[in-house]
Amino acid sequence: MIALACDHGGLALKAEIKKLLEERGLPYQDFGTESAASCDYALFAYPAACAVASGVCKQGILVCGTGVGMALAANKVKGIRCVVCSDVFTAVLSRQHNNANMLALGERVVGQGLGRLIASMWLDAEFEGGRHTRRIGHIAAIEEGVTPC
Fold first, then answer.
1. What CATH number should be reported for the domain holding residue 112?
2. Sheet holding 28-30, edge to edge
3. Which residue, 33, 95, 134, 143, is the most exposed by fewest CB within 10 angstroms?
4. What is the rounded distance in angstroms from the CA atom of residue 127 to the CA atom of residue 85?
5. Which residues form the domain of 102?
6. How many domains does the chain have?
7. Does the residue 114 lie in any domain?
8. Model pTM greater than 0.90?
9. Is residue 149 situated within a structural domain?
10. Which residues are part of the catalytic machinery?
11. Cα radius of gyration (the chain)
12. What does each C-alpha distance from 5 to 50, 72, 77, 120, 139 come to in angstroms?
């Protein structure tokens, strides 16, 4: 299950991501918003991130104007590694090397076509493990307040 959320600045791209997931037969849970009225991104990013962190959802995709606000809010949830991506290369490597479990997109930055492509490539990429597992462990240690060195 994929967690989805957006604020008012990401409605159109979130709709495209829904289409993408439906075409692939991937189930999703939509945490809102469904309105173009101005709203606060953290109120939608947080429950989506909690669903990923708890294992209810395997991954999450967040959309706002730039992706930054959603990512900042999501990354406050323990266990979340949310990346803002504006290109395919970063999206793929964020999965392969950083095991990113959430993707944040900026509708005003990438638009619908590129945003859909970035999400598609991110969903297809897989964590490589190996030396990257140790590095993810360092991130987890920092999250626990432990110096990783």
1. 3.40.1400.10
2. 28-30, 2-6, 59-64, 102-106, 82-84
3. 134
4. 17
5. 2-143
6. 1
7. yes
8. yes
9. no
10. 64, 97
11. 14
12. 12, 14, 15, 16, 25
